[in-house]
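User: Show me a protein chain along with its predicted structure.
Assistant: Here is one chain, sequence first, then structure tokens.
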Amino acid sequence: LARAGKRDEAVVEYRKALATHADFVPALFFMAQVLDQSGKAGEAEASLRTVVKVDPRHVPAREMLAIVLSRRGVHDEAIQVLRDGLTLGGGVRLHVTLGNVAAKAGRASDAESAFREALKQDADVPAALYGLGALLLSAQKPVDARNLLARYVEVATGRGEPSQRIVEVRNALAQLSATPPVVAAPPPAQVPLHRPPEQTRLRRHGQPL
């Protein structure tokens, strides 16, 4: 139903399932996605909180909850939700999301640490290469930024990432080579709720997710 655009009907069916199994994690999580897509972020947040309470290791729910919280400016809790998940072994995905959320909150040092940890675990994570490259370029560290962004283009091209972002990064690299002191950084990575992080066009740090 949700895929057919019948979101209200989908929510009704999820609620029916939850009426008999209140802690049924798949229904709670997918209902949260539909609610958020329908502009009902508060209800989505409540559903996600239940998922995380029932299944603390549910990485997609933690990621989505952190994004919903960050979107409404509750950065401290968003960061804590992610850090709690990392203590349970959340892995690369949560490190990347933490980097994005910390960057949005203006915590550049925390963001850099999170991106670097993601790359320590997997040196070719496109979202981490992109996020850290943009962060360093904004911090006027062009040499390190150039290397990361060039690697991003190489990896993203090989993996069939969205061409628009690759074009943006190539343009930034060209500017960096031509006039290093005055290059505008490509927008930092943001994590969408329903697609892999590398599939969303990103904005500057400090802008809404």
